[in-house]
């Protein structure tokens, strides 16, 4: 099957289980497109697939590196493309699944990511500036030099802000201008899961509570005991930062949990800056409904080489 199915949407909308069903039905394998699941030892807070899920369907690009190792979109893109090719060669259906718009579109649109080597001295100076002036000052600079890239990066994502500024300074051009594209030759079906914001927020809050019950605090404590500090990019992720602050006595547990929920709400809103509801390439389905039959019809028609418009399904 020299094609690709992408399952995208905001966090906690139900992408993983939805994709697991598709992979089982259509003899597929799943390629992770979550920027945090690439890290080892970070399981609960990243909502990694369970051992049962991993035994049911082959998953790729999970547990690749330690939390203190470097990772970026260029590395991800290469690994994802290699996985897609490998799955296709074995006549199985590759499904790329996740909420990282940067990772998803770099593969689907075939971005030519600027080959700019890391500048340790510049990064260090920008990190110091962020500590002194606040990370939002760097975000404001990015808004001035590259407003397009700024819309794609969360104001608190210091690592990506610094990388964008690094590329701008190295090339003299906005990073968004350098995002050349060469789409893959194989066809791609993009299925987006969405739901009303109130329903999504309730799901997020329930998932956060479940993560606490499943041992997120203990997971963060173990990571810190291993020497992984909260200043690492991996540990700045939602959940790890808040629970780390709690363990350091900076906030109480109730406050940390609420901060985690609020940050996840904000992150979900930001994901729609990557996945637009009016994007004609995306077949949106309301995850609050029973959508498996609709999805099965979409994928069946896609694999058969039919136009998705010929399938009788409802787009939300």
Going across the biggest sheet, name each strand in turn: 3-2-4-1-7-8
Query: What fold name goes in the CATH topology slot of the largest domain?
Result: Rossmann fold
Note poorly predicted spans: 306-316
Q: CATH superfamily assignment of the largest domain? A: P-loop containing nucleotide triphosphate hydrolases
What's the assembly state of these chains?
Answer: single chain
Mean pLDDT, to the nearest integer, reads: 93
Specify the structural class: alpha/beta
Q: Could you tell me the number of beta strands?
A: 8
- Our Rg estimate from Cα atoms comes to 20 Å
Task: Tally the structural domains.
Answer: 2
State the share of residues found in helices, binned by percent.
40-55%
User: What is the CATH top level name of the largest domain?
Assistant: Alpha Beta
Please report which band the strand proportion falls in: under 5%, 5-15%, 15-25%, 25-35%, 35-45% or over 45%.
Answer: 5-15%
- Major sheet, described briefly? 6 strands, parallel
Number of helices, where a helix is a run of at least 4 consecutive DSSP H or I residues: 13
Q: Give the name of the CATH architecture of the largest domain.
A: 3-Layer(aba) Sandwich
**What gross morphology would you assign?**
globular
Explain this structure.
With 316 residues, this protein is α/β, with parallel strands linked by helices. It folds into two domains: 239 residues, P-loop containing nucleotide triphosphate hydrolases (Rossmann fold), CATH 3.40.50.300; 59 residues, Histone, subunit A. Helices cover 48% and strands 10% of the residues. The chain has 13 helices and eight strands. The strands form two sheets. A six-stranded parallel sheet has the order 3-2-4-1-7-8, with helices on both faces. Helix 5 crosses helix 8 and helix 9 crosses helix 12. The longest helix is centred in the C-terminal third of the chain and has 19 residues. The radius of gyration is 20 Å and the shape is globular. The C terminus is likely disordered.
